[in-house]
Design brief:
The complex is a heterodimer of chains A (178) and B (650).
Chain A (H helix, E strand, L loop, with lengths): L1 H34 L1 H4 L11 E6 L8 E12 L2 E13 L7 E5 L10 E3 L4 E3 L6 E2 L5 E3 L11 E4 L2 E5 L2 E2 L8 E2 L2
Antiparallel strand pairs in A: 1-10, 2-3, 3-4, 5-6, 6-7, 7-8, 9-10, 11-12
Chain B lengths: L12 H6 L1 H10 L1 E2 L5 H26 L7 H10 L4 H29 L7 H23 L4 H15 L5 H9 L6 H33 L9 H7 L1 E2 H26 L23 H7 L7 H17 L1 H4 L11 H23 L27 H11 L1 H4 L6 H4 L11 H6 L2 H10 L14 H19 L14 E2 L26 E2 L12 H11 L1 H4 L21 H5 L3 H10 L14 H12 L14 H24 L7
Antiparallel strand pairs in B: 1-2, 3-4
The chains are: A alpha+beta (178), B mainly alpha (650).
Chain lengths: 178, 650
């Protein structure tokens, strides 16, 4: 009798295995799709997505010195609209309103906050000791590119900066969507 | 089997339903081969350690709220306010560190014993997975406090993940839950840390225990089979006693450590504050290794070598298949292993020795976990009142009640209210000043320095004292106030806390009646400028454009706009100043005289050039105001000192 049913039993076994596999996939796939959802968002469109934001009055900028300013932009952080805050380094070369350099404080290596060291006249990243000269060009250490310059505008005596974050660890500047 | 003492009747209630004696036999009383003393105890310690982590973790989760706004405050609450919170958190933190140590020791022991040899290959592999699972737990757990260290450490780690060839960007966004570190990163890490990884860990432990049951503990290589059989002993009670002693010593040690050394909690994560991120001690070797690979070769240290190391470790049982277990007869395996261990230890030592910190101190605004009282640099008293007049008085009023504008800004705080004062910590007030509070309170980040904001906090605190102290007039009449003669000399350093006592530094300024205003001096443009600075600037801005407030007060006029100016006469402006306008412009009647209002109106009109000419101004009005303010503050300070006679807890 067992002999007779062997084929049938194997077929049933195969069928059960398949059914349970299908059930398992039904359970797993939506879960994986939900978990992986952040990956499906298109990254790096190559455009600045944000608007110019206020970085404080121009008069407070000392000529010939690097100054750290905070910029704030409205953004969506998960479920809430929130203010995202970032720091930028600003340098005013002369009294002329356009002689200004704005650099992102984010190290192009791995994203640590770069610090200006006036004594050495260099930017230094405290994490892996990448150094940049007073114009933000790479001098030594791991950073694959210089510090990221940011576009700016002068509007009624205040400095407005177009913030963007760039992909770290890459030699090209690839903007990251905010 | 000699120790079998409990012979419950097989027909007992529980026995009949659960057959628990069979389970007991299986677990406790069956003879087990002699373990290798202390070394076998490591596994037990690890199990116990996992248990501690689970229990403390559940307790911490009771008060933890994973979001970028609540994570740090909730951890700070656990750390500073919840009873036993700091201890529980320290147990969790130090327990995790212990687990890394125990895992490493366990790995070393298993390797030396040859515990991965056939048929125990899978036990070794499960163990390796367990170790990486634990590393995953420490990494996800490190972000949860959302302090500076958590934020920047995670940022670097995610940066490294993002540089993985090919899939880096996707992997990073998957782990990060988006393109930025934020709310979804926290919830993801929390889910991994509290649900996914612990479930994996427990599953791995169960697999490991099952395989251990199947194959038995690896016996020491120096004992013969007969020796082993002779030493066979049931777990209960002899071996259990040994284990209990070890566990107790471990528990006491961990408890004392956690009691003495709290888990670190730095200031709340802030992407605008400079910070120096360093990996945990068990990853310092990778940190050091990275230094030897520059540019594109960096991937060797951050990706290639770790990947190779993982595979070498994981598949090791299949590389080294000779059944010999005596370490002295396995020269190649032991040499390789020793070299690996030496490299690890050496790199870690190098990393510690060569540590060159570039930031001298942590960022200035970083609130330290321990002292809730923010330190303040000595500020001069008149500076304080001046600060308040220049920035806050227009809305909050001279007396801090904000009653003049409450009708139009119902949500304005009453600084004299005890409920408000008790409901706001110094930290909160400082943050409110710094970042503002929509829709009406502007942010003073760009206008005021850190110390100035803290000084304002103290000034604001003083309102509660002023109003609750009986017999002290709410509004100080300048003419009746004692006024110090010299303005330049700083009277005394400010009290660092609200009720700091400084009896030895009691200020004894020479007092004299305030000088009567010189009737011959006309109210001039300078006086108007001062008035404007005091009362108007916080909304209308120094340049009169009102740009800062426009987002929340869309109808605020631009004084520099000629069309706007030409549509209004001086008289109309004066009325607006005295009686207020619309829903937001407060009435200044009572605060300024009609003449002052008129001067102000002319000052406002001067924003468009060529309308009003200003006369040269003598500085006396400004100085007089300073004297008033200083006197006011002196009186306030006296009140504070009186109040602090019965010393309150700072």
């Amino acid at each position: 009798m067992a002999q007779m049913h062997k084929g049938r039993r194997r077929f049933l076994g195969f069928l059960s295995t398949s059914l349970f596999t299908v059930i398992g996939l039904c359970l797993a796939l939506p879960g994986l799709a939900y978990f992986g959802a952040p990956m499906r968002r298109k990254s790096a469109t190559g455009e600045f997505r944000s608007d110019f934001v206020d970085a404080g009055p121009l008069v407070d900028l000392p000529v010939g010195q690097w100054q750290l300013r905070t910029v704030e932009l409205a953004g969506q952080d998960g479920w809430e609209k929130t203010i995202l805050r970032y720091a930028v380094w600003i340098h005013r070369e002369s009294e002329s309103a356009d002689a200004i350099t704005v650099l992102s404080s984010i190290c192009p290596h791995l994203g640590c906050p770069v610090q200006w060291q006036a004594a050495r006249a260099q930017f230094v990243c405290p994490c892996h000791h990448g150094t940049f000269d007073a114009r933000g060009r790479t001098l030594a250490g791991p950073p694959p590119r210089g510090m990221d310059p940011l576009p700016f505008e002068i509007r009624s005596g205040r400095l407005w900066v177009l913030w963007n974050e760039f992909k770290t660890g890459s030699a090209e500047r690839i903007p990251v969507c905010i | 089997m000699s120790c079998r003492t409990d012979q419950s009747s097989p027909s007992g209630f529980w026995q009949e339903r659960t057959r628990w004696s069979a389970l007991k036999e299986q677990l406790f009383t069956a003879g087990a081969p002699s373990g290798s003393g202390w070394a076998a105890g490591l596994g037990w310690l690890l199990l116990f350690n996992i248990l501690i982590e689970v229990v403390t973790g559940v307790l911490l989760a009771l008060d933890y709220a994973p979001s970028s706004k609540t994570a740090w405050p909730s951890v700070r609450f656990i750390q500073q306010e919840a009873p036993l919170g700091a201890f529980i958190r320290a147990l969790h933190y130090w327990g995790a560190n212990c687990m890394i140590v125990l895992l490493l020791l366990h790995l070393v022991r298993a390797f030396i014993w040859g515990a991965y040899k056939r048929p125990r290959e899978f036990i070794w592999m499960t163990g390796v997975l367990l170790m990486f699972c634990t590393l995953g737990l420490t990494h996800t757990g490190a972000l949860l406090p959302w302090d500076q260290n958590a934020y920047w450490g995670t940022k670097v780690r995610l940066g490294i993940i993002g540089n993985t060839p090919g899939v880096g960007d996707y992997l990073r966004e998957l782990v990060q839950g988006g393109t930025q570190i934020g709310n979804r990163t926290l919830t993801r890490f929390f889910t991994l840390h509290a649900f996914v990884l612990p479930a994996m860990l427990v599953s791995l432990v169960m697999i490991l225990r099952y395989l251990l049951r199947l194959h038995g503990l690896t016996p020491p290589w120096w004992k013969s089979a007969t020796d082993l059989r002779a030493q066979e002993e049931p777990f209960w009670p002899g071996r259990a006693y040994n284990r209990a002693v070890v566990l107790l010593v471990f528990l006491v040690g961990l408890g004392v450590l956690s009691f003495l050394v709290p888990a670190p909690l730095e200031g709340q994560a802030d992407p605008t504050q400079l910070y120096e991120a360093r990996p945990e001690w068990y990853f310092l070797f990778l940190f050091q290794l990275r230094k030897y690979f520059e540019g594109p070769y960096e991937l060797v240290a951050t990706f290639v070598l770790p990947l190779i190391a993982f595979h070498a470790l994981f598949f090791w049982p299949f590389f080294d298949r000779h059944p010999q277990r005596d370490p002295w007869r396995r020269p190649v395996a032991m040499t390789l292993f020793s070299l690996g261990a030496l490299a690890l230890v050496g790199l870690t030592i190098l990393a510690i020795a060569k540590e060159g910190r570039t930031l001298v101190a942590a960022a200035p605004m970083t609130p330290k976990p321990a002292p809730p009282v923010a330190p303040i640099a000595p500020a001069q008293t008149w500076e304080l009142a001046g600060l308040y007049s220049a920035n806050c008085v227009a809305c909050h009023g001279v007396d801090g009640t904000g009653k003049e504008v409450r009708a139009k800004m119902p949500s304005i705080a009453d600084f004299t209210s005890m409920a408000w004062q008790l409901g706001h910590s110094d930290q909160t007030i400082a943050e409110l000043i710094q970042t503002g509070k929509p829709p009406l309170m502007p942010a003073f980040r760009d206008k005021l320095g850190h110390e100035q904001m803290l000084a304002l906090v103290i000034y604001i605190r003083a309102f509660s004292i002023r109003s609750t102290s009986p017999g002290f007039a709410k509004t100080v009449e300048p003419s009746t106030l004692p006024v110090a003669t010299t303005l330049q000399a700083p009277p005394a350093p400010l009290p660092t806390a609200l009720v700091a006592k400084q009896p030895e530094k009691q200020i004894k300024p020479t007092v004299q009646p305030a000088p009567t205003p010189d009737e011959t001096l006309k109210k001039t443009r300078l006086a108007a400028a001062h008035l404007f600075r005091r009362s108007c600037v916080s909304c209308h801005g120094t340049d009169g454009r009102g740009n800062e407030m426009r987002p929340i007060m869309p109808i605020i006029p631009e004084f520099t706009n000629r069309t706007w100016q030409e549509g209004r006469t001086t008289q109309q402006l004066t009325v607006s100043i005295l009686d207020g306008k619309g829903t937001l412009m407060p009435a200044f009647r009572g605060k300024v005289t009609e003449q002052q209002a008129k001067d102000l109106a002319q000052y406002v009109q001067a924003f468009v050039p060529g309308r009003v000419t200003a006369a040269e101004a003598p500085p006396s009005d400004f100085e007089q105001r300073l004297r008033e303010v200083k006197g006011e503050w002196y009186e306030l300070q006296k009140q504070m000192q009186e109040l602090s006679k019965p010393p309150r807890k700072p």
